[in-house]
Amino acid sequence: MSTVSGELRVVVEADGGSRGNPGPAGYGAVVKDESGEVLLERYAGLGTTTNNVAEYSGLIAGLRAAAELNATRVDVRMDSKLVIEQMSGRWQIKNPGLRPLAAEAAGLVARFRAVTFEWIPRDRNRDADALANRAMDEAAGRVPRDAAARVPQEKGTAAPKSWAPPSLDNATRLILVRHGATAMTAQGRYSGRGDVPLTEEGEAQAMAAAGRVAGLSRDVAAVLTSPLTRCVRTGELIAAEVGGVPVTVMDDLIECDFGLWEGKTFAEVQEAWPREMTAWLESTSVAPPEGESFQAVAKRVRGALAKILQAYPGQVIVVVSHVTPIKLILRDALAAGDAFLHRLFLDAAGVSTMDVWPDGNIAVRSVNETAHLR
Question: Record-annotated residues binding substrate (predicted)?
């Protein structure tokens, strides 16, 4: 490392990424001396957010690491043109969601005697990029723990924290509704791709959910639904209650394919496929025989959510789907682990609400509301 007259000069290479934009995100930062020797590394997952938020988070983590080393001069190198130009003062920060992050970074910059910002091509930022991808892989459960342990991890997110209620300006509100009950629901059977209709009770539940949705907002822009009859019918009842808004089918909102377990109870599956059931409960990468894993469901549901946020920015959207897709959406929104999927119960016609901002920030307002069903 370079030390002249009591000064320590370091290089900070930082990066961040999001698989979906917004989607599962992470950042990486490397502090090096001028010879290229690595002094410190930082990386962490960020839950669901955007590329730009992840990139700023990487910068903040790198500056914090440089401060830990008592560096006095820092050369920041990133392949994010937006972050480099905004931190250099040449570009305005038009996205209000990025301003708190830029302000936090500027506060860290003020601790050093001098900080320079340089854009570099991605192939020169491989170390930070690899750490950001490692963070995303670990969050998805794709990196062995012994491999992860080789890199020091900075826990937590660099996003601003506040107890103040977030402003709804520019937020897209998602009202997540599970379909009403079917005959399979009442019997506790795995109900995936089988196209079973609502029962009479299910129709009543769907109408009650429609009333709850109308109470939440009369400004619903669209109702998006799984292609299966039980969801489409639930969506139609909701759409009629909120003013006849369009009902649009999205194939990727369909339930998990339970394969050979379709139509069977938990006890029946446990008796016939004990090893397969144990493996399925222990890992989201395992699929039922001839079925679909939760990881596969999560991938398509994230894609659907990204399309929704792009198509309906700042609007109120009702999403009518099934247990698995809704659980996965809430898991990602709450930055929870896979155990969340087995601990959360979603009632037929239960309603959950969340807000998503353009910068990827998320506020979960409610989970599995059922008061309207009593």
Answer: 230
With a CB cutoff of 8 Å and minimum separation 6, the contacts of 167 are none
Domain residue limits, the chain: 2-148, 172-373
**Residue ranges at the known binding site for substrate:** 230
Least trusted range by pLDDT, from 49-53, 54-58, 117-121, 151-155: 151-155
pLDDT at residue 225 is higher than 50 = yes
CATH class, 172-373 region: alpha beta
pLDDT tops 80 at residue 4: no
pLDDT-derived band of residue 156, with 50, 70 and 90 as boundaries? very low
Give catalytic status of residue 179 as yes or no. Answer: yes
Annotated catalytic residue, options 13, 55, 138, 179: 179
Q: Is the pLDDT of residue 348 over 60?
A: yes
Check if 255 is active-site: yes
pLDDT value at residue 148: 36
Give the active site residue among 41, 104, 154, 255: 255
Q: Considering the entire predicted model, what is its pTM?
A: 0.60
Q: Considering the domain 2-148 in this protein, what is its CATH number?
A: 3.30.420.10
